[in-house]
Amino acid sequence: MAKLRVLAEKPPMARGTPDNQLLELRDYLFRVHEELEYLLTHLDTDNLDKGLNVLLDGKQDALIFDAAPTQGSENPATSGGIWDALALKAPAGYGLGEQLNALTAAADCDEVDKTGWFDCPPATLNRPTGITAAYAGMLYSVVRGAQYRYQEYYAPRDTKIFRRFRNENGWGAWTQI
Q: What is the mean pLDDT of residues 94-107?
């Protein structure tokens, strides 16, 4: 394939008179133009497309996917595996499924008596102070026995998180964390 030699060459260096330099450069560009014309007229795009598809298909077939995100793995995870893993981590109703528990407008955070995630409408009583009153939040409640409870309140509008505890003396104050 002697026709493809010019593209591998370096362009001519500036030597001699300006007229000679222009002639050398013109000759070089003419040879490059001839080679490009040759390549374009002899290019078999059907075979090129087929060859690229074979290479890409082979690459895709060689990938190994993890069914779920795995710490330390360099393999990609499947969409369903990522969805399932996030559903176990994120509170329901925040993009992953339905609410686990929805409080009514007149609900009271003090009266939540079970463990789980709760959607808190803006009118929920005994929410933390210092959040935008017109927006809902999420309450995570942990109940251990009749007296011992732990709650976290997530105020996404204000990007704040609050925590409080209850013991035999009642509820402690909400503390921003």
A: 61
